[in-house]
Specification:
single chain, alpha/beta, Immunoglobulin-like, five-stranded mixed β-sheet, four-stranded mixed β-sheet, 20% strand
């Protein structure tokens, strides 16, 4: 082999080694450029994270009690006397303006207000009106149940009971005022689904002369 050919072969080998080094370096750069950010712990740029969107959920409206509240009132005997076939003569209590038998659904809320000019009580019985000597003005809350055994205790003019709940079973109740029972202040209450107050008594004629105070006005 001539010296010229030997130099050409040596130059070719050097060129191939150089070319291989360049290609290897390019491959390393290519791998490094594609390897970031894709896997757990990878480097390079980070993809933007989705931003939380404002909640469109509607907050629930607070529950409103569907239990109605019935207002009962004490009045003097001037609001009339009514004779009922079940309860006899009744006077002094009303759901409207004048004496009447009361009608309430089971489980409704009841507030009783003394709209008279003197103190009263409301005592609740079952089975009939009590004997005169068995009535007291002592309070007996009865667990807040307007049913047999409940006694309001004395209520001053303008004072109301706490909110009560009528008994859960149907039946007739007999109510009296401890202070004026002997004067006829008593009434009947019908507890039944759909019960309504009875007809109203004719009020007594308006008093003339000096102002009247107390039961009987």
């Amino acid at each position: 082999m001539s010296q010229k050919e030997h130099l050409l072969k040596k130059s070719a080998r050097i060129f191939l080694v150089f070319l291989g080094s360049v290609l290897a370096a390019g491959s390393i750069m290519l791998v490094a450029g594609c390897g970031g950010g894709g896997g757990y712990g990878g480097g390079g740029s980070t993809l933007p994270q989705p931003q939380p969107q404002p909640s469109t959920a509607v907050s629930p409206t607070p529950a409103v009690s569907a239990v109605p509240t019935v207002h009962l009132n004490f009045f003097g005997s001037a609001n009339g006397v009514l004779t009922d076939p079940t309860f006899g003569a009744v006077s002094g209590f009303t759901q409207q303006q004048h004496a009447q038998v009361l009608g309430l659904d089971p489980g409704v809320h009841v507030i009783i207000t003394n709209n008279d000019s003197t103190a009263h009580t409301i005592n609740v019985y079952s089975g009939g009106f009590p004997a005169q000597g068995a009535v007291t003005s002592a309070a007996a809350p009865n667990g807040g149940i307007f049913g047999p055994g409940y006694q309001s205790g004395p209520l001053a003019p303008g004072q109301s009971t706490a909110m009560l709940t009528t008994m859960s079973t149907a039946g007739n109740l007999f109510v009296v005022c401890a202070f004026h029972y002997a004067m006829g202040m008593r009434d009947g209450v019908i507890i039944k689904t759909g019960a309504t107050p009875g007809p109203q008594a004719t009020p007594n004629p308006a008093a003339t002369g000096p102002a009247c105070h107390g039961y009987g006005c």
